[in-house]
Design brief:
By secondary structure, this protein is of the alpha+beta class. The chain is built from 8 helices and 27 strands. The chain has a 7-stranded mixed beta sheet. Strands 5-6-7-12-17-13-18 form a 7-stranded mixed beta sheet, with helices on one face. α1 (33-45) packs parallel to α2 (63-71). The longest helix has 16 residues, at 289-304.
């Protein structure tokens, strides 16, 4: 018997701050600390909540000079102190040298880690996303309750997935000798919004890509209509610049110093790339389908009036024995059990209002379902 969920209510009011997150991604700062300092000051002027550095931090310079460039700016220094200036290790530093820095620029004392900031979920895959059993780990992170609860999902690592850069290059099949097709498949499966990398010293933004092919071009993407992921190389924060080439996946590229700004709002993402003078060189808008769906449900709830007591129910229409688990955005299990009837109604009125993820498994199907509660 094929099992399905019927959701009785799906409405959410969240804190305003949870609907918007601004962050910066850049990297490959070796070996020119003057350029890195200048760009880092411009990064600070954007006042981001998080900074992602995609590796190759200091090269022939020293680790202390690299840290001093970050500490010299009050905004980036504050993020560094709060463990929100984060690095995905490059091939020009060992993990031991990176993890020895204080304050820390990684989490969980590992180059592979994940975290949530506002409405965004981030995964660092370190230098090589295929290493250390990385794809099994990456799949685990992207399928987690925290990831599925986020409006936007991002991956950052050093080796690129797509790059036309003359230094290394990557064609979506292999990168620096490693196969990356599984990486792409996970981005497709879990609706990763954007992936950030370095290694090639350039700026490059791909077209919208799904299943190894371009499914959209231009500068505005509605991923409700056309799902896909954008791959960005932002490896121009001081390292010697590479030339770029014309490739089928390229939306925009240039052998330039650069940094990227992402303003992830509740239903729209504004992506901007700037050169080292602070001039905008590229801009993209992404409309998020899940965020729009939630917005529509909120508007419908406002039109139809508030839900009364007992309306916060969730009905499972399934084969007996289906296992279910309802998890909050922090990964804490709120409700769990096994269905005891073909139509089992769960009373969720005792739960705090907010966003939850239902994990459900039967012999013929596994699923993740967002639910949102009010009252």
């Amino acid at each position: 018997m094929r099992s399905i969920f019927v959701v009785s209510i799906l409405v959410l009011f969240m804190a305003k701050s949870a609907f918007s997150t601004k962050f910066v991604a850049y990297g490959d700062s070796r070996d020119d600390m003057n350029t890195f300092t200048s760009i880092t000051n411009k990064v600070g002027a954007e006042n981001p909540e998080v900074v992602l550095h995609v590796g190759d931090c200091w090269g022939s310079a020293s680790a202390s000079s690299w840290l001093n460039a970050i500490k010299a700016n009050s905004v980036t220094n504050g993020l560094l102190s709060a463990n929100k200036y984060l690095v995905s290790r490059g091939n020009h530093e060992s993990f031991s040298s990176l993890s020895a820095l204080s304050p820390s620029v990684v989490r969980n004392n590992s180059e592979e880690y994940s975290f949530t900031q506002g409405n965004c979920f981030f995964v660092s895959c370190g230098m090589d996303p295929s290493a250390n059993g990385g794809y099994a780990w990456l799949s685990q992170q992207l399928s987690s309750a925290a990831s599925q609860a986020a409006t936007w999902r991002f991956i950052f690592n050093h080796y690129p997935i797509y790059s036309s850069g003359s230094g290394h290059g990557a064609d979506g099949t292999t990168s620096s000798g490693a196969a990356v097709t599984q990486y792409r498949s996970l981005c497709d499966q879990y609706h990763v919004t954007m992936c950030f990398a370095g290694h090639d010293h350039e700026y490059e933004r791909s077209k919208l890509i799904f299943n190894g092919a371009a499914v959209g071009s231009g500068t505005t993407y509605n991923i409700k209509q056309t799902p896909g992921t954008i791959y960005v190389v932002t490896g121009g924060a001081g390292a010697p610049l590479y030339s770029v080439a014309s490739k089928w996946w390229v939306g925009y590229n240039g052998g330039i110093y650069n940094y990227t700004i992402i303003d992830a709002r509740k239903d729209t993402l504004l992506f901007t790339a700037k050169n080292n003078n602070g001039t905008i060189v590229d801009a993209v808008t992404i409309i998020n389908p899940i965020a729009n769906d939630v917005k529509e449900k909120i508007q419908n709830a406002e039109k139809n009036g508030p839900y009364g007591p007992g309306k916060n129910t969730f009905t499972i229409v399934s084969s007996v024995g289906a296992r279910y688990m309802i998890v909050d955005v922090n990964g804490k299990v709120a409700v769990s059990g096994i269905s005891t009837s073909a139509q089992m109604r769960l009373d969720l009125s005792g739960l705090m209002k907010g966003l939850y993820i239902v994990k459900w498994a039967a012999r013929d199907r596994n699923a993740l379902q967002k639910i949102v509660l009010v009252e």
